Amino acid sequence: MRRLLLALPFALIPLAHAAEHSHDHDHDHEHGSLSAHEHGVARLNVALDGQALELELESPAMNLVGFEHAATSDADKATLKAARESLEQPLTLFSLPAQAGCSVASTELESPLFGRKEHSHEHTKEHGHTHAEEHGHGDHDHEHSDISAHYQLSCFTPAALKTLDLNALFQRFPDTRTIQVQLIGPSGQQGVELTPSNPRLNF
């Protein structure tokens, strides 16, 4: 079940595309992409269909690494690598009920700062770090940079998926102050805004 979210005809899709394309068209306008790129604010799309749980996080790089330029200094490269390693562990950042028995089927990270799309299945996350850091900044080295993370999980007992707690994500990336969540699941569609003081989504 590839890209479950893209197969669902509801409101989060235009939002995701707006965030994706805002930098292609609006980066020359200081405020042109504010609705899709706002520091401190991230977007999370969540879809549950049977045992398949899909998470799609879109965030300004500033929220996650503290800068949006190409990582050239050793300090910036180390910060970027550490952030990516954290993003490659969704079950640490996104706390799900243990009874649901969720495991990660794949992760996909994308950002101009990474230089190219990173895709991994379970045990392949160690490949490609150095290459991604050293190549491909080029045309994307402009004012705004986003980081996207797309996860596909398989949950053995989806009925036990009652909550999704983002406290660990807020703790790991404290510059992220608000996460706008759109969820589609067994109870239908809902939108909710989560913060460090209110980090839990109820399915």
Automatic annotation (TrEMBL):
Keywords: Signal. Residues 1-18 form the signal peptide. Residues 115-145 are annotated as: Disordered. This is DUF2796 domain-containing protein. It comes from Stutzerimonas azotifigens. The lineage of its organism: Bacteria, Pseudomonadati, Pseudomonadota, Gammaproteobacteria, Pseudomonadales.
